[in-house]
Amino acid sequence: MNEKMVFLDIDGTILNGQNQIPPSTKYAIKKMKDQGIHVAIATGRGPTWFKHILNELDLFSYVSFNGSYVVFEGETLFSNPLDRKHLIEFEQVAKTKGEPMVFLNQNHIYANHPNHHYIQDCIGTMNFEHPPHHETFHHENDVFQALLFIEQEKAQWYYEKKHFDYVRWHQNAIDVLPLGGSKAKGIEALLRVVNIPRENTFAFGDGLNDIEMLEYVGYGVAMGNAVTEAKDVAKYVTGHVEEDGLYNGLVKVGLLKE
């Protein structure tokens, strides 16, 4: 089987520092699709936070919530929500400590605080507004990812709670994820269904939550702006996102010709 699939992180990989898609990235993705290469987004974001990117790039496949909700060509293949009982208990402790949270599923995003500056500051880095307030959303709905807004030095108590995994993505925010989940697990679940060999898969990323993905796929490529830990596990390192890094990386692994 010669089918190939490429997984692309969003922030720092597809999007540059201005939260824009470089022209070379748009060109590269179109050329891959024209060649019959499957292209999917692989991100820590929920679908409501990257729907506009899917539309702009004409993509229909994604690994979202760091692997907890997976869609291929518009069809949901895998979902792994947070344990509701433990999430409710977790949120109750966070509330007593004065640390706000946000809860996300494939269709909705709600905060348990009506207007908190940590939420606005962190989410604002992605050019999004403070989510609407809903006290009990996570009591009544599947949640695939929660965000806890807390400084690093105060987070140890939560890290010791073994019901979830945690990834810090901002100095004042961490992702709360299903135990054992990762982009790699989401990709593994997708490949089981679509039957594309692992050795024919490629991934590009730059963050700590990309490490397992870069290790898992056949060809892991770290962006030039990636954290050291991602570069250390990648098979290749390409240029900076601001310097056509994605395009040049695709040329380097042989998926595009200059």
Would you write up a description of this structure?
The chain has 258 residues and is of the alpha/beta class. The chain is built from ten helices and 13 strands. It folds into two domains: 5-80 and 181-252, Rossmann fold, CATH 3.40.50.1000; 84-178, 2-Layer Sandwich (Hypothetical Protein, Haloacid Dehalogenase-like Hydrolase, Chain: A, domain 2). Strands 5-4-3-2-1-11-12-13 form an eight-stranded mixed beta sheet, sandwiched between helices. Strands 7-6-8-10-9 form a five-stranded antiparallel beta sheet. Keywords: Hydrolase. InterPro entries: Cof (IPR000150), HAD-SF_hydro_IIB (IPR006379). GO terms for molecular function: hydrolase activity.
Look up the CATH topology of the largest domain: Rossmann fold
Helix content: 25-40%
The first-level CATH class of the largest domain is given as: Alpha Beta
**Can you list the strand order of the major beta sheet?**
5-4-3-2-1-11-12-13
Q: How many extended strands?
A: 13
Shape: globular
Low-confidence stretches: none
Per CATH, the architecture of the largest domain is 3-Layer(aba) Sandwich
Instruction: Determine Rg (CA atoms, Å).
Output: 18 Å
The largest sheet is: 8 strands, mixed
Organism: Evansella tamaricis
Pfam families: Hydrolase_3 (PF08282)
Protein name: Cof-type HAD-IIB family hydrolase
GO molecular function: hydrolase activity
